[in-house]
Write a structure and sequence with these properties.
The protein is of the alpha/beta class. 39% of the residues lie in helices and 17% in strands. Helix 13 links the parallel strand 13 and strand 14. Helix 20 packs antiparallel against helix 21 and helix 21 packs across helix 26.
């Protein structure tokens, strides 16, 4: 039996008025044979992890504490009857368990909605041996948290008891009670550094393996080593993926059996641009807007449109244009007596505030004749079910960071997506009903796309994975069990980077400093910054900044209509940041936030500054966790006066961090702080030129300060340091700080002492 390709064959296709640029979808579908295929069953939608992230499902978990054990079990029984039994995985439980019991490694391909992430672990939980656990890894933190919450409810327990999770800076497990633990790949790797046999686990489930993150690849390599060595007979592995590209996993584990469980999606017709229209297409945003208008006017009312654009810049531009032309189009339709719905454009990308992200999930006013137009990055490509979406318009592009090993820089590029990504995107239109997908590229271009996106280990910085390998004791890194080797050149450059940071000695062995860096849940560059701060007695202030840098999208991108106002408020609030840059600005914002007396005041300030309140809550949590890690590294850290409580409240709700307040908040040692960061980012520096431009110290390439930086309008910096480099139309430095040229020489001499 052939596996489903993710598309449906539609017979007797009729040409649709108004969509002449598009041709019918591909007629020939590639078919991959699988040894075991289970039938399709009716099921509820699978976990919508992105939506769970928006509403912060982890914070809902404490409500279960109010329920008795009997009430929890009653809830679980209700979920079992109404939801779980309808899932394809549950209906094929016996067959699946037979394969798991009879094989040390099983590869399971489960389509969206199959229930693999929640049901397979529960099949095993009651049979696990006493004192042993089940580990289920996830590439993303939010997925581990939300899945643990859902499974705890299905199992009938409080999260943290029999079912729990462990992610960076957050752990809800019980040493004795917990049998099933959801955790990120990185956390399991960290456990492996402490226990090379992973002796507490009987089952390891590697979920979402198709995402091929660096840490997933690294974890699979370690697991293969365990199966060939110390855990040959008492450890079972289940590798779970949502795509049909399972052969690589099967071959890696000595031709492990492959199971395929179908999910449920409705048929989706796919259309491509004709050659003529493709040649006329010049601007992607313009082409997307024209397609939105075309689809909205030609397709029956009753379904929203989801548009995929490569990045935030393109989305903001498209939304602004659609907002301007929407009332014009509405008036035109009324005058012509055309029954065409009014378009309501809504953006969706990671840097949006949670409140604005939630708007795409809300229904429009039923009394108005309107259609939602959601313009999204690839954040909506997988796992997300946006209610009402019936039409997808796909640009076929995405933005991706490519690590340039030779330069030690990350480059942000716009590149074509893979065929698998195209299929995932089109599938968004078929979650609730039959749908249509309009691709803004030719059919032949689709055929020529790569089957899968390039794995992360090929295109990203691998210094941290190499540090983990060194910590675990791997000597021959080049010939280690890589699922896909990053290549000799990348490995050599990564090892050289660790050497430059003082993590390796001349013999390529971990130094005392490298051992400490490996214990911190940070990139080696930031670990180096913290260790230097401990030496310079400015650890408190540096921790503030590192914690802020560890929270993605802490500072939101304001809407164009309020951008100037917000930027001016930020500029006026950061008195030191105006002169010294973005890192010091983060320190000042941290102090301002903690200095406010009440939660309403904090929320109001965050709103005015376009800063996420929840983000600062996470900063407080991360800071506390980092302190605990540092205490393990240096028991004397508590004796540092920077950590002593100075009777100043730093509470965020109940997240007090009193012992981490600077003794001299108003006298921030800017020079010491920035020198600490130089120890981690000395290669990410540039020198000011007479024409007020900047050239990097490593390659002499020109680089510009990003417009979002506090330093953008400041032209008299002798030199700059940046924690992030992106290349779009040109090279941009982000998170920029002013540095003095003599600091570079001092830090360069300081680095040499580790060599």
């Amino acid at each position: 039996m052939a596996a489903s390709s993710g598309h449906s064959k539609v017979k007797n296709h009729k040409k649709i008025k108004g969509v002449n640029p598009f041709r019918n979808k591909l007629k020939n579908q590639q078919k991959d044979k699988k040894p075991v295929i289970f039938k399709d069953f009716e099921e509820d939608d699978d976990q919508d992890e992105f939506l769970d992230n928006l509403v912060q499902a982890e914070d809902k978990a404490p409500s279960y504490h109010k329920l008795t054990k009997d009430e929890l079990k009653a809830r679980a029984d209700e979920i079992l009857e109404k939801q779980r039994k309808k899932l394809p995985v549950y209906q094929n439980k016996d067959e699946i368990m037979t394969y798991i019991n009879n094989n040390q490694v099983t590869v399971l391909i489960g389509e969206t909605g199959s229930g693999k992430s929640t049901q397979i672990p529960q099949f095993l939980i009651d049979s696990v041996r006493k004192g042993k656990k089940i580990a289920v890894t996830q590439p993303r933190r939010v997925a581990a948290i939300s899945l643990a919450g859902r499974v705890a409810a299905e199992y009938g327990c409080i999260i943290g008891d029999e079912v729990g999770y462990s992610v960076r800076f957050d752990n809800r497990t019980h040493d004795k009670k917990t049998k099933l633990k959801y955790l990120t790949d990185g956390m399991l790797l960290r456990e492996l550094m402490m226990d090379k046999k992973l002796s507490q686990y009987e089952y390891l489930i590697i979920d979402e393996a198709h995402e091929r993150t660096i840490l997933t690849d690294l974890l699979l390599g370690f697991i293969k080593g365990l199966l060939n060595g110390s855990r040959k007979n008492d450890l079972k592995i289940i590798v779970m993926s949502a795509t049909l590209q399972a052969d690589r996993f099967s071959k890696f584990f000595n031709d492990a059996p492959i199971l395929f469980v179908k999910g449920r999606t409705y048929p989706v017709e796919s259309f491509h641009l004709s050659s003529k229209d493709s040649e006329e297409q010049t601007d992607m945003v313009e082409s997307m807007i024209r397609s939105v208008i075309q689809v909205n006017s030609s397709e029956p009312f009753g379904g929203d449109i989801l548009c995929f654009l490569p990045g935030q810049e393109e989305i903001d531009k498209a939304v602004a244009i659609l907002q301007k032309i929407s009332p014009i189009l509405k008036d035109s339709y009324i005058k012509q007596k055309l029954k065409i719905p009014e378009i309501v454009p809504l953006p969706l990308y990671a840097a949006l505030s949670p409140a604005k992200q939630l708007l795409v999930f809300n229904k429009l006013n039923s009394n108005k004749f309107q259609r939602k137009i959601i313009l999204s990055t690839n954040i909506a490509e997988t796992s997300v079910t946006i209610p009402g979406v019936k039409y997808v318009i796909d640009s076929g592009l995405r933005k991706v960071k490519i690590w340039r090993h030779e330069l030690g820089l990350s480059t942000l590029l716009t590149v074509p997506v893979s065929r698998a990504s195209c299929q995932q995107r089109s599938g968004r239109a078929g979650r609730e009903s039959e749908g249509k997908c309009f691709r803004l590229f030719k059919e032949n271009d689709f055929v020529n796309l790569p089957p899968q996106s390039e794995s992360e280990i090929i295109r990203c910085d691998i210094s941290n994975p190499l540090l983990i390998l060194k910590k675990v004791g791997v000597k021959d890194i080049l010939n280690w069990s890589w699922l896909e080797s990053p290549g000799k050149n990348a490995i050599v450059i990564g090892l050289e980077e660790l050497y430059s940071l003082g993590a390796l000695n001349d013999s390529g062995e971990l130094t005392e400093k490298g051992e400490k860096m490996a214990l911190l849940p940070l990139a080696p560059h930031l670990s180096n910054v913290l260790l230097e701060a401990m030496e310079r007695n400015c650890i408190s202030a540096v921790l503030d900044i590192v914690a802020c840098l560890s929270v993605e999208n802490l500072l939101l991108n304001p809407n164009p209509d309020i951008r100037d106002t917000v930027n001016e408020k930020r500029y006026q609030s950061a008195t030191l940041g105006r002169r010294h840059g973005d890192l010091i600005m983060l320190k000042e914002f941290y102090d301002i936030f903690n200095g406010l007396d009440s939660v309403p005041e904090k929320k109001q300030w965050c709103q005015e500054m376009s800063i996420t309140y929840r983000g600062f809550q996470n900063v407080i949590k991360i800071r506390r966790q980092l302190k605990d890690y540092l205490k393990k590294i240096d028991a004397n850290v508590e004796k540092n006066e920077q950590f002593k409580n100075k009777n100043k409240t730093a509470a965020v709700d109940d997240e007090s961090d009193d012992d981490f307040i600077d003794t001299n908040d108003k006298k921030i040692d800017v020079e010491s702080i920035l020198k600490c960061f130089l120890y981690g980012f000395v290669k990410n520096t540039a020198i000011g030129m007479p024409d007020r431009s900047y050239r990097t110290t490593t390659t002499g390439e020109p680089i510009s300060i990003h417009p979002s930086s506090m330093m953008f309008s400041k032209k008299d910096n002798p030199g700059i340091m940046y924690t992030e480099y992106v290349f779009t139309s040109k090279g941009f430095a982000r998170n920029v700080s002013r540095i003095e040229l003599e600091w570079l020489q001092e830090v360069a001499m300081g680095v040499k002492k580790f060599k």
